[in-house]
Design brief:
Blueprint lengths: L1 H20 L9 H32 L9 H49 L3 H96 L1
Helix pairs in contact: 1-2, 1-3, 2-3
Pfam families: V-SNARE_C
GO cellular component, one term: SNARE complex
GO molecular function: SNAP receptor activity
């Protein structure tokens, strides 16, 4: 298990160092480490199987007729070996899972790196065409942005014109109201003036009649 863990650690370290040293170095060239991993994994699985069988025989021995069932030291030893087997099994599966995860990650990185290299090694015509497509896409995005800005300005202008139209309607209605009120005021003033003239005429006639009567009385 210790050698198996060291193998996994060296596999990860070698991949990291190879990736940092050069961008053109292939990531997956550790086939010997992969074969060693498979061999050691099979060997450890066989050893764990044998250890499991031994634990089973020990358990059978403890329940045999010739062994006291209440032997605490014997039961403690059996439990201790079971714990050791469980720890070994857990450690093996954990190390194996880590190794497989590292190898899967390296496979994915290798695939991505191959795609990048194939893209970089493509013909100049394809690269030029890709650049033209990207520029055209950027022009379209700029056009869309300008159109959106124009639409926003038009919408704002429309809202302002609508607001101004409402204000003009309000002013026009107020002016009509005032214009409608002024004739009524003029007619009222005219009526007041006519009544004043009538009162003046009546008062003048009364004063004249009274004056005539006074003169007639004075002369008689």
């Amino acid at each position: 298990l210790v050698s198996f863990s060291k193998l996994c650690t060296s596999y990860s370290s070698s991949r990291d160092g190879r990736r940092d040293s050069s961008d053109t170095t292939p990531l997956l060239n550790g086939s010997s480490q992969d074969r060693m991993f498979e061999t050691m994994a099979v060997e450890i699985e066989q050893l764990l199987g044998k250890l499991t069988g031994i634990n089973d025989k020990m358990a059978e021995y403890t329940i045999s007729a010739g062994v006291p069932s209440l032997n605490a030291a014997l039961m403690h030893t059996l439990q201790r070996h079971r714990d050791i087997l469980q720890d070994y099994t857990h450690e093996f599966h954990k190390t194996k899972a880590n190794f497989l995860a590292i190898r899967e990650r390296e496979n994915l990185l290798g695939s991505v790196r191959k795609d990048i290299e194939s893209y970089k090694s493509g013909s100049g015509v394809n690269n030029r065409r890709t650049e033209l497509f990207l520029k055209e896409h950027e022009h379209l995005r700029n056009s869309d942005r300008l159109i959106e800005e124009t639409i926003s300005i038009a919408m704002a202008t429309k809202e302002n014109m609508t607001s101004q139209r409402g204000m003009l309607k309000s002013i026009h209605s107020k002016m009509n109201t005032l214009a409608n009120r002024f004739p009524a005021v003029n007619s009222l003033i005219q009526r007041i003036n006519l009544r004043k003239r009538r009162d003046s005429l009546i008062l003048g006639v009364i004063i004249g009649i009274c004056t005539i009567l006074l003169l007639l009385y004075a002369f008689h």
